[in-house]
Amino acid sequence: MSRTLHLNAFLMGVGHHEAAWRHPGTEPVRLTDVRHYQELARIAERGGLDSVFLADGVALSGDVRHNALGGLEPLTLLAALAAVTDHIGLIATVSTTYHEPFHVARKFASLDHISGGRAGWNIVTSAGEAEARNFGVERPAHATRYARAAEFLEVVTKLWDSWEDGAVLADRAAGRYADAGRIHPIDHAGDHFSVAGPLNTSRSPQGHPLLVQAGSSEDGKEFAARHAEAVFTAQQTLREGQEFYADLKRRLPAHGRRPEDLLVLPGISPIIGSTEREAHALEKELEELLIPAYGLAQLSRMTGLELTEEHLDGPLPDVPAENEGAQSRRRLVVDLARRERLTVRELIARLAGGRGHRVFAGTPEQIADQLQEWFLCGAADGFNIMPPLLPGGLADFVDHVVPELRVRGLFRHEYEGRTLREHYGLPRPPSRYATTRPEPVAVS
Amino acid sequence: MSRTLHLNAFLMGVGHHEAAWRHPGTEPVRLTDVRHYQELARIAERGGLDSVFLADGVALSGDVRHNALGGLEPLTLLAALAAVTDHIGLIATVSTTYHEPFHVARKFASLDHISGGRAGWNIVTSAGEAEARNFGVERPAHATRYARAAEFLEVVTKLWDSWEDGAVLADRAAGRYADAGRIHPIDHAGDHFSVAGPLNTSRSPQGHPLLVQAGSSEDGKEFAARHAEAVFTAQQTLREGQEFYADLKRRLPAHGRRPEDLLVLPGISPIIGSTEREAHALEKELEELLIPAYGLAQLSRMTGLELTEEHLDGPLPDVPAENEGAQSRRRLVVDLARRERLTVRELIARLAGGRGHRVFAGTPEQIADQLQEWFLCGAADGFNIMPPLLPGGLADFVDHVVPELRVRGLFRHEYEGRTLREHYGLPRPPSRYATTRPEPVAVS
């Protein structure tokens, strides 16, 4: 099969649109109901999608008065989704700033075992102030967070490698459960971590659960070029998408990697209608359910401005330059406002669908056109699909857009592999500690 | 119903006996196979047991050449078991020494949501040296570990309380998702932790997942008397069991608690046969599969001695007094050896079944007699059942011992509640932050 799309279902509560929970097509009390997420995973699997993906933060951020917040921890949830699915990949976000690498290595190895090789880790470094306050520390500087992330990843992958393939013998007659020569301490001693190893969970089906990254800052792009196997990104226009794609792929050879070793997957929130009129009516309906105070607070947080109702019908004020948090997302928001000369109210509406990710309303064919154009014009290897309403928006995508993509030869008709790495067309890494000595003959 | 037993299935790989993995009744390759544990959970649920329980440590400890080690992380695994069961409680061991309370609070709250109120936390403080080396620290002293554990628990329960019941309104028409006045920062600042809160997962079905504890040192017993709702313990004789039971219950009033607020659950490994002869034959069969080198290493670690093959047929040498690790388990082992005048070889065989927990071989009636005696004579409120072989030993217990206990009026015929707290007959704690002000009328 020639090059085809990779599609993830980015699951977020009852939908990505900020007003999703107010729409009659959702049930906001299902935010903490595992059956809701199991239904979503089954829908995504019915469509042959590569994975379901869960974002995360380690603080209650955003105004809970006006949005459906307070859901489930992703790794725990994905284990419960693994139990009711067979093929779909399971990607969880976990921060390197507020965790210990031993625990993270073990949990992902466990999820990979439990799911038969479907686990992926979206590596984030936690830019938020509120997150730091839940761990009794000052928020570390951007460069410090990325330095810690790089060493964290080194420790985690060493732990994943600490049991070679073939270490488990399970030779009952000889009384040899494992070949201790194939299980290695890692003896890591670095600036941030000192970890003896080995891991106390054996090597998992994928060897390494898949490594995903989403930062778009300079540090983020370098980290991705060095370590990530898939990058989630927010890009508003085809030209920006192409630039980001080319930039990232260009960085790979310096790290001994080929362009196909890293998939670039922009987010898109498809607002789907059987007709254009229906799609735009749904978009408008969601917009009318927005709560201005919530949008103002969100936009204030993104930009570092203090926006009030008085700003709603004017242009976005100038944004201070020094805020060192989520820089790349802030630039995207300012560029969008300036490029399209949006008022603050209009900008809030534009951001409400995807928090800076692209939103596109149209028929299934029009959405397929958009995905195809970005895919063929060097802006994407696939997409993170962010349905405005869940489960309805995901079911619409799977039932109406996926068949159109299949007709065009752009997407698989059924799963060809079992693991997330196989879905993504990525190799299974060997253990860095792999020995080549022959296995001694078992004697009893 | 009058006072009845509480029974947990303590799951450990393919069985609690150290030679389980060598027995033809097990499949050691299933150590990392989620379907194995799902089968066990279903068997336990078929028997109406209170919970399945998973022990844990955060290092590869024990000799992996000779025992089936390297399994799955308990919290991740239990989420996958929640997905295929409806009633059985799910108790995971997590250490307070090498985790952050925010993550632990969130994961247990998530598991409690996912399971509909069936989560329990076995709180341990990680006595091992190898564990400390995976986190770049010196192993903290016993008292330090328990001081940290107490503050850890305070933070976790504050976070569980940070969303009051009723905080989620999901009032679409009024645009009010939650009542922010019922979601509280915890602003904890103590010796070990500084945590702002609130949790970013809403209050879970049980309010607090059940708190379980297993330490039997003086610090451990005080911790249990203050905080725990169930205690797992290793007791070899009825008299020791009675002493421990009375000791623990006696400590409760000083903390404003009643005897029935804390369940005492000794471990027992039942080796079941249709006849006594069958039971003893199975015990003997397992003993013959033991690997002496493994038992010597285990016993050396427990006692702080350096035991070799030369010691096998003599008595246990004197044990140095200073080893400050698992003191209570060491004393138990020494007492057992002295009381029954065991050789080192015999002691190893006795410990191989339950690592210091009681092992009893007999018919279903005889096992029921033992459980009944301890239950009625003030040594137990129930038991942690540790089958020598899994799944077979658990199925035998559920199919042959449980019916006998039911006939005697000692065990439930079916589940009467849905949550683990309901199975244990324990109340659902209110939020410490609960407000009594009336909810304002929603206006749109």
Explain what this protein looks like in three dimensions.
The structure is a homodimer. In chain A, α5 (about 140-160) runs parallel beside α6 (about 220-225) and α12 (about 365-375) crosses α13 (about 390-405). Helices cover about 40% and strands about 15% of the residues of chain A. The mean pLDDT of chain A is about 95. Chain A is of the alpha/beta class and about 450 residues long. In chain A, strands 1-2-3-4-9-10-11-13 form an eight-stranded parallel β-barrel, surrounded by eight helices. Chain A has a two-stranded antiparallel sheet with strand order 5-6. In chain A, strands 7-8 form a two-stranded antiparallel sheet. At the A-B interface, α2, α3, β6 and β8 of A face α2, α3, β6 and β8 of B.
SSE blueprint:
Two copies of one chain form a homodimer.
Chain A (H helix, E strand, L loop, with lengths): L5 E6 L22 H13 L4 E4 L19 H9 L6 E7 L5 H15 L3 E6 L4 H5 L8 H20 L6 E4 L4 E3 L9 E2 L4 E2 L14 E4 L4 H10 L2 E4 L4 H14 L11 E10 L3 H13 L3 H12 L23 H13 L4 H9 L5 E5 L1 H13 L5 E4 L6 H16 L12 H5 L20
Parallel strand pairs in A: 1-2, 1-13, 2-3, 3-4, 4-9, 9-10, 10-11, 11-12, 11-13
Antiparallel strand pairs in A: 5-6, 7-8
Helix pairs in contact in A: 2-3, 3-5, 5-6, 9-11, 12-13
Describe the oligomeric state of these chains in a short phrase: homodimer
**What is the mean predicted local confidence, pLDDT of chain A?**
94
Q: Secondary-structure element sequence of chain A?
A: EHEHEHEHHEEEEEHEHEHHHHEHEHH
Give the % helix of chain A: 25-40%
Number of domains of chain A: 1
The CATH architecture designation of chain A is Alpha-Beta Barrel
Radius of gyration of chain A, taken over Cα atoms and rounded to an integer in Å: 22 Å
Per CATH, the superfamily of chain A is Luciferase-like domain
What is the tally of helical segments of chain A?
14
Shape of chain A: globular
Structural class of chain A: alpha/beta
